[in-house]
């Protein structure tokens, strides 16, 4: 099986590149590399999630599957008096996310390698964000939802971006089986933003 971004140790040869962009009104620069998700530019689903997500300035936030960091770093700007934990199974993505946080002057973040939410055992959060790794399969995506529920504070919210053609209906059904309130709060070019409140 060929490797994809949901691999712990990508073997793809390095191909580092810079991405200059604006997210939530902030000019940011990201370094990406081969072997990580959406290496050429911030993917549209992440952008839609970043524009939609609601985060209080003192929130404790978790970004699951952070990649090289656009969602978590944008969240850290919003949670300026809070803290963002960014996790990914991909060791190369984790290193890039650390580098990108530092380069963009973000200090209220912790970046860790983690298989699903294993690295944050015992911790709870006000907001959990995920652009889930669809290529890893439905079992992994649903495990993220289940573990996110367990790691949310009462009243906390899980924000998910997912394409309709890549499983949005089954994702909604799964979330509705667990969470008190599930809303579709945005959509753009086939991407749906789901907000599930505990």
Largest sheet: 7 strands, mixed
> How much strand content do the residues show?
25-35%
In angstroms, what is the radius of gyration? 15 Å
Principal-axis shape: globular
> Would you tell me the overall average pLDDT?
91
Helicity level = 25-40%
Q: Work out the helix count.
A: 5
Side-by-side strand order of the widest sheet:
5-4-3-6-7-9-8
Low-confidence stretches: 1-5
For the record, give the distance between the C-alpha atoms at the N and C termini, rounded to a whole number.
37 Å
Counting helices, strands and paired strands, the structural category is alpha/beta
| Beta-strand segment tally | 9
Q: What string, H for helix and E for strand, traces the elements in order?
A: EEHEHEHEEHEHEE
Could you walk me through the main structural features you see in this protein, from its secondary elements to its overall organization?
Helices cover 27% and strands 32% of the residues. The chain has helices at 44-52, 70-78, 91-103, 138-150, 168-176, and strands at residues 17-23, 26-32, 60-64, 83-88, 109-113, 125-130, 152-163, 181-188, 191-197. Residues 1-5 have low confidence and may be disordered. The N and C termini lie far apart (37 Å). It is α/β, with parallel strands linked by helices and 198 residues long. Strands 5-4-3-6-7-9-8 form a seven-stranded mixed beta sheet, with helices on both faces. It has a two-stranded antiparallel ribbon with strand order 1-2. Keywords: Methyltransferase, Transferase. Its EC number is 2.1.1.172. It comes from Paenibacillus silagei.
